[in-house]
Amino acid sequence: MSDLERAELVIVGAGAAGLMAAIWAGRAGAHPIVLDGARTLGAKILVAGGGRCNVTHDEVDERSYSGSSRNSIRNVLRRFTVPETVEFFASLGVRLKREDTGKLFPVTDSARTVLEALLNAAYDAGSEIRHPRRVEQIEHDEDGEYVVRGPWGALRTPRVILATGGRSLPRSGSDGAGFTFAESLGHTTTRQFPALVALTVGDGWFGRELSGLATDVEIEVRSGTGKRLTSMAGAVLCTHFGLSGPAAMDISRHWQDARADDAGAQLVVRWVPGLSSEQLDAELQQLGAQPVARYLGAHVPARLARALCEQAGVDAVATGQTLRREERRALVRAVLDTPVPVTGTRGWSNAEATAGGVPLSEVRLETMESRVAPGLHLCGEVLDVDGRIGGYNFQWAWSSGFVAGQGVAKALLG
């Protein structure tokens, strides 16, 4: 293999985590060659946040993530924090602004600003980015080095950073190849499924007739026995196919996780967060001559108020004083305990993140180096870490990419 081109470091993937790793490895003195199969780099960055790129969130901790243990996630996040992320991007000429939701966006409202800054920083740090260069195989040879192969040829290197992403948005180049590479090198991977994805709901569910309606709710996953497993609060959007919006997308991974082990697990919506059944029942009893739909309209959009009355079998113009006890109870259930007959998700092509991957227990958290394949480092979405909507997954990319890049440089240069 002496005739193969040699590289000090090969980074597979030029997405958020891969570019971050390249920047910090290069700044520490390494000379990365970054390989990416895409003809146009940074597709996921460019489409993130509606084309504005939600760089991070103003408050990030391990409780906003799922997958590997929270202690492990915290250990990586604290190595490159939100303030350090803000300072890093400012040093690249990208100033961030905070919106009311806590999300941080570039003041330009353009994802291209973020991508170009990262690419320029990677080049300035001495990285060589080669694309389209699709990697099809990574071998660990008897000399302890790696051979990275593709239709373009092969590279031989002592160190590889796997930053291939997951399976979400496959049109961007994320086809799950990184999981295959990791497994071929001795890693295990947990089951992968779409995260941050809209939910499809069966025909006949009334919410599908409310397409375009958005409202704040509390949404929860319950076990088949009725035990509350996970709860999210936030906006949902009723669509012609089911439920979308931040709360529905956040809960999607938890619904899928629950259903994998419990076919009876279900999703339930509380249309008026913070209101108990006892409170609502008492308020309905005190309505007097006020129409029920008008009262509900003070809490939810008018269309939804009328639909909830219909679901409960209550005339929308009925007044509080005419409500029978069973009608009142039916209305309480409709407002605060609506089962959603979820049939599935919109799939990988619409998912914003991947749940599952290589467990953090299989990497050394201080360097992101593999415990089973020395010289291999992993970062970003290929690991079993997925965050809530709102910039959390980008923060994981920045943090894990930083640790991997510095870890590789330290190993190479001492």
Show the helix and strand layout.
Elements: E1 5-6, E2 9-12, H1 16-27, E3 32-35, H2 43-51, E4 56-57, E5 65-67, H3 70-77, H4 82-91, E6 96-98, E7 103-106, H5 111-124, E8 128-130, E9 137-140, E10 146-150, E11 153-157, E12 160-162, H6 177-184, E13 193-195, E14 199-201, E15 214-222, E16 228-238, E17 242-244, H7 246-261, E18 266-270, H8 277-285, H9 292-297, H10 302-312, H11 325-336, E19 338-340, E20 342-345, E21 353-355, E22 363-364, E23 369-370, E24 376-378, E25 385-387, H12 392-413
Parallel strand pairs: 1-11, 2-3, 2-12, 3-8, 12-24
Antiparallel strand pairs: 4-7, 5-25, 6-7, 9-10, 10-11, 13-21, 14-17, 14-20, 15-16, 15-18, 16-17, 18-19, 22-23
Class from helix and strand fractions = alpha+beta
Radius of gyration: 25 Å
Apparent shape: elongated
Low-pLDDT segments, ≥5 res: none
| Assigned CATH superfamily of the largest domain | FAD/NAD(P)-binding domain
Largest sheet data: 7 strands, antiparallel
How much of the sequence lies in strands comes to 15-25%
Distance between the termini: 27 Å
CATH architectural designation of the largest domain: 3-Layer(bba) Sandwich
CATH topology tier name of the largest domain: FAD/NAD(P)-binding domain
Number of helices: 12
Helix content: 25-40%
Task: Characterise the protein shown here.
This protein is an alpha+beta fold. The chain folds into 2 domains: 5-193 and 353-413, FAD/NAD(P)-binding domain (3-Layer(bba) Sandwich); 199-345, Helicase, Ruva Protein, domain 3, CATH 1.10.8.50. It is built from 12 helices and 25 strands. The protein has helices at 16-27, 43-51, 70-77, 82-91, 111-124, 177-184, 246-261, 277-285, 292-297, 302-312, 325-336, 392-413; strands at residues 5-6, 9-12, 32-35, 56-57, 65-67, 96-98, 103-106, 128-130, 137-140, 146-150, 153-157, 160-162, 193-195, 199-201, 214-222, 228-238, 242-244, 266-270, 338-340, 342-345, 353-355, 363-364, 369-370, 376-378, 385-387. Strands 19-18-15-16-17-14-20 form a 7-stranded antiparallel beta sheet. A 5-stranded parallel beta sheet has the order 8-3-2-12-24, with helices on one face. Helix 8 (277-285) packs across helix 11 (325-336). The longest helix is centred in the last third of the chain and has 22 residues, at 392-413. The radius of gyration is 25 Å and the shape is elongated. The model has no long low-confidence stretch (mean pLDDT 96).
